[in-house]
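Deviation from plan, reported transparently: magnesium ion complex.
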Amino acid sequence: MTQLPHPPATIAVPPVSDVPRHVAIIMDGNGRWAKRRLLPRFAGHKRGVDAVRTTVRACVRRGIPFLTLFAFSSENWRRPAEEVSLLMKLFRTVLERDVDSLHTEGVCLKVVGDLSAFDDHLRLLIERSMEKTAGNTRLTLTIAANYGGRWDILQAVSAAFLANPELRDDPSRLTEVQLAQHLSMAYAPEPDLFIRTGGEQRISNFLLWQLAYTELYFVDTFWPDFSPQVLDRAIESYCNRERRFGRTSEQVEQGQVIPDYLSGAKTEC
Ligand code: IPE
Ligand code: IPE
Ligand code: MG
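Because the crystal trials were delayed, the predicted structure below was used instead.
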């Protein structure tokens, strides 16, 4: 039986509503936004922070309970050292400046990724910010930093084998649920809506496991120009999708009850 608060979409058909429970965003296009204005790339990252603030508020107002933002990928270390160092500094500054107001707004902050690569000061700030906001329930804001979907799956596999020593005799018995319990975002439902700004149509090693049945939305807007209006257009597009999760349209229309083959319980579709 699962200890997961939200079973994977491949195990049980999740509830579908007009307000996505979880929006996950690749905030891309900061560099190009700056280049268009003949500014250094970092100016785009700085303006990107304003778009983060606006988007968090917009999600709170719309009653979206989970928002996940891709801030720095495991591959972004390949960028020029100066840009990486400025990005780390910006992350520190934002944590120092914004955590109190996030707390007041009822936001629970989580940071996922391989945090061992960050310096002690940044790690401590992350830890304190998460502790301070841990009891908040209005919106869970997850920042993916030094995050890679492949890293996440690998660390989850290792953790699942450590937690279930009986699997060593027969590794083929490892189940999706056993693995998913150890993913870094096991506390959240899988994203309903994925948005990537900046015009590229790729996943760039974001939530590889969790995006299995997510609705994808790509928009040309550069991240610093992202606004509640663009968010609403993405949500509108999401509302017009038929989420079938492997079933036929007819089954979805009839609201057919499907046995949840994990627990034997029935889930209404
Ligand atoms: C996204 O914007 C921010 C990070 C990856 C940190 P980019 O910096 O990738 O902007 P573009 O894609 O070069 O315009
Ligand atoms: C993805 O953007 C990572 C983040 C937004 C943090 P990138 O700009 O790094 O992605 P690629 O390199 O164009 O795929
Ligand atoms: Mg980019």
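Helices lie at 30-36, 41-61, 81-104, 120-133, 149-163, 176-180, 228-239, 249-253. We consider this an acceptable substitute for the interim report.
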